[in-house]
Design brief:
The chain has three helices and no strands. It starts with 7 loop residues before the first helix and ends in a 6-residue tail after the last helix.
């Protein structure tokens, strides 16, 4: 254990310290997540039309690539959804 001979009391201390450190880490993560959630509630982000369009095109291209790699036709997939390419 950590390169040392440890008796039972020493082993218990190592375990106690690891549990203590884990609880500290968990508490810090909980606090950080609460802060992030609060910031998200208070923050407003506006995306321009151009940015949204770029993201839509990127995701659509990725979907088309995935469909093509699976051996299916993109047009058949779109049609199966009852949609058109627009």
């Amino acid at each position: 254990m950590r390169g040392k001979d440890v008796d039972f009391a020493g082993f218990k201390e190592i375990i106690r310290q690891e549990i203590f450190e884990r609880k500290e880490t968990d508490a810090r993560i909980k606090d950080e997540n609460a802060l992030i959630e609060k910031l998200a509630e208070l923050t407003t982000v506006e995306f321009g039309v151009h940015l949204v369009q770029q993201q839509v095109e990127r995701v659509y291209a990725e979907i088309k690539d995935n469909i093509s790699q699976s051996g299916a036709k993109v047009s058949d997939y779109i049609e199966s959804l009852g949609l058109d390419e627009e």
